[in-house]
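Render Eukaryotic translation initiation factor 3 subunit I in 3D.
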Amino acid sequence: MRPILMKGHERPLTFLRYNRDGDLLFSCAKDHTPTVWYADNGDRLGTYRGHNGAVWSCDVSRDSARLITGSADQTAKLWDVSTGRELFSFRFDAPARSVEFAIGDALAVITTDNFMDHVPTVQVKHIAEDLDDQTDESALVITGIKGRINRAVWGPLNRTIITAGEDATIRIWDTETGKLLKESDKESGHQKTISSLSKSADWSHFITGSLDKSAKLWDSRTLTLIKTYVTERPVNAVDISPTHDTVVLGGGQDAMNVTMTDRRAGKFEAKFYHKILQEEIGGVKGHFGPINALAFNPDGRSFSSGGEDGYVRLHHFDSDYFNIKM
């Protein structure tokens, strides 16, 4: 496969997101400045300046007109994708970590961290078409989760919100009432912090990655455990191929120990597993630190990885990949 090295961030990567058409790639990092790239050749298109803290996640609207970002500066911001202009800033009493637009882009889910005397929250915000109508008010606030919520995503048809984080528990919530509907089983579920969560293209299932050195595939409606992928390193990032029966896992040892070892010992590579058979089928090396972010292009023909080393690596699959019968 043909790697493209993209250097636009001064600090470790935290999140990657393609737009629906797969021609743009958005990257977030601890350097305060979300960046947008051409997904084909890795050329940098521009940056979004306005945050004063690490940017933990982002999402782009279905029409690629708006970007939403969550930051340690206690704000989530709406941006104009094409101009880089800040459109609106949601302000919180704690860092904003996970953000995602709902189907239709009229709602967004945002999580806030446990900070000082503030408990973690999951908040739903209305996203107005006309910026003059945009408000800071929350349509729904969910509390009661202990520990940081690392990811919150919409379930099928916007009827549920799925959360996961430090307490190693996945929960499904009703978006109308905020009521807890389902909770992952402690025996079959993760045993350590869930670091990442990514949905399938049709939203029917999702994958979680954990510091317990495993990734797990779940049914989005029933929260039934479908598959488990076991590796030998903490998992920081996961994604599901939209076209093949493949999942990708990335991670490595803790960042604080990176300088004490070499690239091989740190196990800094993206590993591919057969989604059904749960077997490892390949790996891609290159990062000089733990992988913190992974994303498949919606066309399934490429994927990107972001690392503690501050680089985004863009990989286009060669023709052999598409001849694999899965």
